[in-house]
Amino acid sequence: MGIHERDIFIDKESGKDFNRPQYQAMKQCLREGDLLYVKSIDRFGRNSKEIKREWEDITQNIKADIKVLDMPLLDTTQYKDQLGTFVSDLVLQVLAFVSERERDNILQRQAEGIAIAKAKGQHLGRPQLNLGTLNMEQRKKLDSNYPKWKRKEITGVQFMSLLELKKNSFYKVLKEYEQTI
Fold first, then answer.
1. Phi, psi values for residue 68, rounded to 5°
2. pTM above the 0.70 mark?
3. How far is Cα 20 from Cα 42, in angstroms, rounded to an integer?
4. What is the pLDDT of residues 34-57, one digit of tens each?
5. Any idea of the CA torsion for 58, 62, 67, 72, to the nearest 10 degrees?
6. Helix, strand, or coil (residue 3)
7. 91, 86, 79: which is closest to 51 by C-alpha?
8. What CA–CA distance (Å, rounded) separates 121 from 180?
9. Which helix (H) or strand (E) holds 118?
10. How many CA atoms lie within 13 A of 12 on its CB side?
């Protein structure tokens, strides 16, 4: 599009709201007469009321234009007459609604998937780490270094490092280990 790299803003966060650092930075840079390119309306935002509010703020208060690349009807540089504005507003509202519904559908499908997985007894989240999940190398290091740790010849931090465990996992494994000896 011939846009200088410093004028390209990319959000890595969800479009569920407009409290995104890159979006806010871009909005601070916008001036009257600027042209804002948006790849897709669902990349702009996901809440239809907020999309409409932000669209109006940019086009009416800041007086910048917006062009949505994958929807030519959403181009405020064209159709400046009353009918064109009406069509753009109508298309914007429909697409914003569809975008919001898609977000709701994604969340609903996610919740349904989690419920099904839980009903099947599947573990969700980070894999459980315990004494039985240690590999042979870790188990050998645990057996050989546990007495040194108990005699305070090595510190807990050194022992954790040898076992390549984080603090919580380390103490969980040690508690289990101590019950077996």
1. -95, 115
2. no
3. 14
4. 999 998 877 787 777 888 888 889
5. 70
6. coil
7. 91
8. 28
9. helix 82-119
10. 0
